[in-house]
Structures are given as structure tokens and as C-alpha cells.
Design brief:
Length: 452
């Protein structure tokens, strides 16, 4: 079984997969005239920048809808900012040296165009289900845009299995392991608490998921960024050397390979370049689903929010994590042998912030992983509902409830089980999601409209 999984894993995540991801991003970068770069001030002012300016922001309290564009963006950020933003960066630097960070930037900039394309197409083709909620995502624009319902059905099926593996079991396992190591909490206790909290949130539907994400993500990400800045300021004198090493090492083969791997790893990190899928999931299609509930918006507006998420996930959070590691490393502190991944990041924080640093990394991993769990539940629920509509009336009544039960069970099992094989299988399901989505993006590329 293990050998078969490894073979399938290699087929799904071979070098050609990287070419498909980056090639798709380049297609939309060229078609848009590099909008993610030339239009930075425009899309920034209509996304995160609107919270610092005047007039552009629409307060969700004045809207008639339950889900604002900002809440959808926070839900999408909850899915993309995971434990891999901490662990994946350390893996990238270990694989390719400081120059790996440069290639993470390049990959993210290209991925921003893909994120815009899939999210705007998702908004363009979304429709309301019989329960009044929006149905949105790659499966919808595959069926209604590309005219290929079978491809949409296949994508939805892959997404359901991926949510039960990568979205729930893998993330809850990371939470349980972190709590056991950092606080001595037995896995079974973690399983009970995490499953109960997950149920309390997801059973409230997308409204509750978006409200929790809206409160959880800005605060948790803000605190993490603040502590990163504190460590970097403590090692301020090393910054010139750090940036010199980043650019000097960027064009060596190990750095380029490690950088691309790190970009792809930054969501989950444990096995190969697919372990994190894209740090921001651009090309996977999940952003198109997660933005589907936003009201009082346009395909262009939500597309720009997706670009911001890619920017924030990789250019901001991953970069600061990398600078923390590199600044501490070049300040002369020898890294203990065998310390890597999350342990390396925690060790670097502890060198400047003491025990508080280790606590910070543990807390960040727990919060980010929980946010990913509730966001991926919504993604899975959307695809399950889409499948139920096509399986017949008798399925529609009970299938969402059955899926919710399986999802909570997967969270519980993830906390107490060993998931070596599940990690690999999760990568396979994620890769299988990407292939039909990339095909649909190419088929519908002429329908993607970027702001002038």
C-alpha cells in the first residue's frame, strides 16, 4: 500500500505539475499585463488598503447580506494560512539556502494572477442552491462555463476527499502534536476539545464560520507578525547580510529548487514539494469556493481580494518567518543538530524572546490549523452539496449531514492517530483537484476580465 501510494504521489506531483502551475500563472500574468504589479495601488486600495483610507470600504454592518467581501477574504485566508507557513519556510531554506526566499516571491507573484482568475470565474458562474445559499467554485465554472459537467463532478469528488484528509485529519494532527509537545496535553483530550470546538463552529454554517474567521485571522496573524518584527529588530544589524545572501544565492540550482519547493510546501510541509500544495492554494481552485458566499460584490473585487490573500500569505507571512530564521542564523547562534521544521522556527524565536518565543510558535500553529479546519469544512460542504444536486433528490436531504459527521470524525481521528500514509494520500487528492481546475482555467481564460 505504501509503495503504491508513493508511485501515485510521484505521478501526480512530478516536475510537470510545477510547470502547469507556473505556466497557468504566467498565462494570466501576460493576459493582464502583469496587473498584480502594475495595478498594485489599485487592488490594494480596494482590499486591505480600504481599511486605512476613506470611502472605499463598505462596512459589513451597512450591507444587506450576511457575508461581506471582507468576511469571505478572512475565510479564504483561514484556509490558506496554515501550519505550513511556519514549517514550510524552514523546509525551503534548508533545501535551497537563503536564495530560496527569492523564488518564493517569484512563485507568489505569478500565483496572484491565477488566484484572481479562478476567483473571478467562480463569482461569474455561481448560482443559488435550493436552500438559498450560493454554490460556487471550479465545479460550477467547469459545468456552466466550459460545458463539462463530468469534469465538475470529478473535481467536487476530489475536493471532498481532500477536505477529509488535508483539511481535517492532517490539521488536527498538527494541533494535537503541538499541544502534546508544548503543553503536555494528552492527544485524547485534544481530540475531544478540538472536535467539540469544530462542531460548535461548523454547525452554525457559513455565517458562523465567516464570523469566527473574521475575528480569528486578523488578530492571530497580527500578533504573529508583531513578534516576527520584534525578533527581526533584535537582529537588525544582520539584515544587510541576509538580503545579500538571498539575492546572491537566488540563481544557484539548489536555491531555485528549494524556493519553488518551499512555495509549494508552505501550506503543510512534510513530504515532497506537494506537501503544502501552494502556500496560498492558487491554482487548486479552493479560493473560488471560499469566496462564493460574498454578497454585494463583483467578480473583479473578489478576484482582487484573492490576489491580496496570496500576497499576504506568501510575500508577508512567509517572508517574515524566513527573515526570523535567517537573522538569528546570521547573528552567530549555532543551530542545534537535528532541529528542523517547526522546531527550527520555534528555536529561532526562543533565541530572542525566550520561552515566550516557543509559546508563540506553538500557539500560532494551533490557531492557524484550527482556522484551516473550519474553512476547509465549508469548502467540502459546498462540493458535497453540488454532488448531492446531481445524485438525485433522495441524496440531497441527508448527504450534507452525513458529510458533517464524517468530517468531525476525521478531526477526532487525526488528533489521536499516526498519519504518515494520510499525509501522502492527502497530497494526491490535492494534486487531483489541481489538474481539472488548471484545464478549466485554460479553457475559460478569455472570459477572465482584469481591471483596466
Amino acid at each position: 500500500m505504501q509503495g503504491l501510494a508513493q508511485t501515485v504521489h510521484f505521478v501526480i506531483w512530478g516536475p510537470w505539475t510545477m510547470v502547469l502551475f507556473l505556466g497557468t500563472g504566467l498565462l494570466f500574468t501576460v493576459r493582464s499585463g502583469a496587473f498584480q504589479l502594475r495595478g498594485f495601488s489599485f487592488w490594494w486600495s480596494r482590499t486591505a488598503g480600504s481599511f486605512f483610507g476613506k470611502g472605499d470600504r463598505q462596512d459589513s454592518k451597512t450591507k444587506t447580506s450576511d457575508i461581506s467581501a471582507f468576511q469571505s477574504a478572512c475565510t479564504a485566508l483561514a484556509a490558506t494560512i496554515g501550519t505550513g507557513n511556519i514549517v514550510g519556510v524552514a523546509t525551503a531554506l534548508a533545501a535551497g539556502g537563503p536564495g530560496a526566499l527569492f523564488w518564493m516571491w517569484i512563485s507568489a507573484l505569478i500565483g496572484m494572477a491565477t488566484a484572481y482568475a479562478e476567483t473571478s470565474l467562480g463569482q461569474q458562474y455561481r448560482y443559488r442552491g435550493e436552500d438559498g445559499h450560493w454554490i460556487c467554485g471550479p465545479m460550477v465554472y467547469m459545468e456552466r462555463g466550459a460545458g463539462c459537467g463530468a469534469l465538475g463532478f470529478l473535481y467536487a469528488l476530489f475536493a471532498v476527499f481532500s477536505s477529509l484528509c488535508m483539511g481535517s485529519m492532517v490539521q488536527s494532527n498538527s494541533m494535537s502534536g503541538t499541544l502534546a509537545f508544548g503543553a503536555g496535553i494528552p492527544p485524547i483530550m485534544s481530540a475531544i476539545v478540538i472536535t467539540a470546538l469544530t462542531g460548535a463552529v461548523v454547525l452554525g454554517g457559513i455565517s458562523r464560520i465567516s464570523r469566527v474567521s473574521e475575528r480569528l485571522m486578523p488578530v492571530s496573524a497580527g500578533v504573529y507578525l508583531l513578534f516576527c518584527a520584534g525578533v527581526i529588530l533584535c537582529c537588525f544589524q544582520t539584515l544587510p547580510q541576509v538580503f545579500t545572501e538571498i539575492f546572491a544565492g537566488a540563481f544557484t540550482m539548489p536555491a531555485a529548487g528549494g524556493g519553488v519547493t518551499g512555495f509549494l510546501l508552505s501550506r503543510s510541509v512534510r513530504y515532497g514539494m506537494s506537501r503544502g500544495v501552494f502556500s496560498n492554494e492558487a491554482g487548486l481552485g479552493s479560493l473560488a469556493v471560499l469566496h462564493g458566499a460574498a454578497e454585494d460584490t463583483t467578480p473583479q473585487e473578489q478576484g482582487m481580494w484573492a490576489m491580496f490573500e496570496v500576497f499576504f500569505d506568501t510575500i508577508v507571512i512567509c517572508t517574515l518567518t524566513a527573515l526570523v530564521i535567517l537573522c538569528v542564523q546570521y547573528s552567530g547562534a549555532p543551530i542545534p543538530e537535528g532541529v528542523e521544521g517547526a522546531a527550527l522556527t520555534a528555536w529561532c524565536f526562543s533565541q530572542r524572546l525566550g520561552i515566550l518565543g516557543e509559546f508563540l510558535v506553538s500557539a500560532a500553529m494551533v490557531v492557524f490549523a484550527f482556522a484551516t479546519i473550519i474553512a476547509w469544512y465549508y469548502l467540502g460542504r459546498q462540493t458535497v452539496y453540488y454532488l448531492a444536486e446531481r445524485l438525485g433528490e433522495k441524496w440531497k436531504t441527508h448527504i450534507v449531514g452525513i458529510y458533517t459527521g464524517f468530517y468531525l470524525l476525521a478531526v477526532f481521528i487525526g488528533c489521536i492517530g499516526r498519519l504518515d500514509l494520510v499525509w501522502m494520500v492527502s497530497d494526491v487528492w490535492n494534486g487531483l483537484m489541481a489538474y481539472p481546475n488548471i484545464l478549466a482555467l485554460w479553457l475559460l481564460s478569455s472570459q477572465v476580465k482584469f481591471p483596466n
